[in-house]
Amino acid sequence: MSENATSEEIIICQDVCKWFGEFQALKDCSLRVRAQEVVVIIGPSGSGKSTFIRCINRLEEHQAGDIIVDGIPLTRDVRNIEQIRSETGMVFQQFNLFPHLTVLENITLAPIQVRKMHKDEAHETAMALLNRVGIPEQADKHPGQLSGGQQQRVAIARSLAMSPKIMLFDEPTSALDPEMIKEVLDVMQELAETGMTMLVVTHEMGFAREVADRIVFMDAGEIMEVGTPEHFFTNAQHERTKLFLSQIL
Amino acid sequence: MTTAADTSLDRSVMPPSERRTLLGWMRRNLFSDLLNSALTVVAAAVVFLVALLLLRWALTTAQWGVIPANFNLIMRGQYPAEEAWRLWLALYLLGGVIGLMWRLISGKFSTAALIVFLIPLALREVPLFSWMTRFHLLVVAGAGAGAFYLGAYLPIQRSVRAAVYVLLGYLVVMLVILRGYSGDAGPMPTVTTILWGGLLLSLLLAFFGITLSFPLGVALALGRQSKLPAIRIISVTYIEFIRGVPLISLLFMGQVMLQLFLPDGFPLVDRVLRALVAIILFSAAYTAENVRGGLQSISRGQYEAAQALGLSTYRTTMHIILPQALRAVIPVLVGQFISLFKDTTLVALVGLFDLLGIARTITANPDWLGTQQEVFVVVALLFWIFSYTMSYASRRIEQRLGVGER
Asked: What was the ipTM of the complex prediction?
C-alpha cells in the first residue's frame, strides 16, 4: 500500500449522474481523490465503473453533478476538456494502440502534436518510457506484432509520455491471457510507487488489496461503499459488497 | 557426428514432403475426378478454339496498316505535329519527377523501381516506333534515373509530403507546356485543348480526374460524418444527387447547358475543362462513399484513444483515422479509379476526341473503311495496359502497407 497520498484533492466528483437514453447508468456518484492516491473501483459488470471513470476525461458526458479535475471544472468548454485530457492519461481494456504506427510513433505522436515537443526529445522520452515498462527492443515494431501484455505496456507508456498528473485504468488486464496479467500489474504497481494518482477499474483483487489506498465498490450505478483494502476484505459493511466479495474471492 | 536421436529429431522438424512435379500438380488440380477431368477438357477446348480464331484473324485477315498510318492521331489527336516536341518535354519531366518522387518516398532502388525504370526502355522495342521516338524514350528513362540519383544530393527532406509538392508543381508546369503561353507565335504558341486528343487526352482526363476528385471525395466523406448539421446535409445532398445521375448527363449538362445559364458575354469556358469538371464532380461522390466505408471500419476505441491523449479532432482525423481508413479501401479506390479511366471515353459522345473518339473518326474515314476491328482491338489493348498497371500497382502497395498491420 502506498501511503504517500497528500491532502490536495485532485479529482472531485459531486453527485454525478449519467443516463444512456432512459437507463440511468450513474446515480449521484460522489468521490474525492487526493493527489498521489491509488483508488481501485470494483463491482459487478454493468455497475457503471467504466462509465464513471470515462466521465472524468469526458469520453462520456455526465448530465448532472460536478466534476473538477486539478481545479478545472469539466464543462462543455472545449478548452477545459482538452486541458483535462492532456493532464489525464487513460489505459483501455482493448489497448487501442494505433495499428498503422510503430510502437515508437504511437508513443511520440501526442507529445509532438499536442505538446509541440521536438522530435528528438520525444524519441528520447519514449525510449526512456519503453525501458521503464521493460520492452525497449520492441520500439520499431507495429502493435500487431506484440503480445497482449506488451501492447498494454506500450499503451501505458503512450499515456505516460504526456506526463499526466492522473492515470485512469479501465479494466487494463481483462483482455489479457492469464500469463500476461502479471507483467502489466507489475508496471502499474511500480507506477503507483512513484506517486502517480491512479483510478483503476479492475477485477484483480490481489492488486486492489496490495496497491490500493482506497477501494470503491459500485453496484447498479451507485457508489455503495468506500474504504481501505483492510476494511473491505475483513469488515465490509454493505450486504451487496459482502455478496460480491464472496462471489469473486 | 549425428546420432540416431538427432536424425529422428530433424525428421520431426521438417514439414511432410510434397511432390512438386507438374504431372502431380495436374492430377491433383485438373484431373482429380471424372467431372473435374471433363471440365478441364471442355475448358481447354474452348480456350484453344478462341485463341486459334483470334490468331488466325490477327495474322491473316486483319489490315494492321491502319494503325501505323494513324499512329499520331491515336497518340495525341490533332495536337500539331510541329509542337509535338512539347509532349516529349512533358514526358522527360514526368520521368524526372517519378525518379525524384521515388527518391523522396522510398529512397531505395528496389525491384519495383527497376521495373518502372525499364518501362520506357522496353517501349523502345515496339517495332512501330521511329528512331526519333526511341531516342525520346531513352531521354525519359535517363531523366528518371538522373533525378533519382541527383535527388539524394538535394537539400529536401525525404517525405511523402515533399513528393506530393513535387507532383503538384509538375502538374502546373505540364499544363503550361502543353497549352503554351505565348499566344499565336513565340516559343510556345497556344494549342487550344480542343486539339488535344487520343491517348494524350484520355490519360490527362483520367489523371486529373483522379488527383482532383480524390481530395474532394475525402472531404465529402468527412463532411458526411461531421457533427455540424449544415456540413453534413450539404455533403449528403451532394453525394446522393450525383450518385443518382449518370455521368453522361453531367457531361451533356456541362457541354450544352452550362453556357445557357451563364450571363451573356461570359467568356466561353474551355470544353475539355468542362468535361473534366463533370468527371471530377462525378467521381468525387463515389470516392466519398468508398472512403466512408473505410471510416466506418475504424473502431470507436481509436477515436477514444486519440481523444484521451488530448489530440484535437483535426489531428485525430489526419494522423489516426484517415491513414487507416484510406489503407482499408485502397482496393476499392483503385477499382474506382480504373472505372473512372474507362468512363472518360464517354467524352467521345459530347464531341471530344479522346482515344475512343479518335477511333471513331478513323474508322469513319473512307480510306480506312472496314477496319473497326483492328482499331478497336488496339484501343482496348491500350486501355487494358493502363488499367492493369494500376491494378498491379495497387496490389503492390497493399502488400507493402499490409506489413505489421493489425
From this structure: 0.92
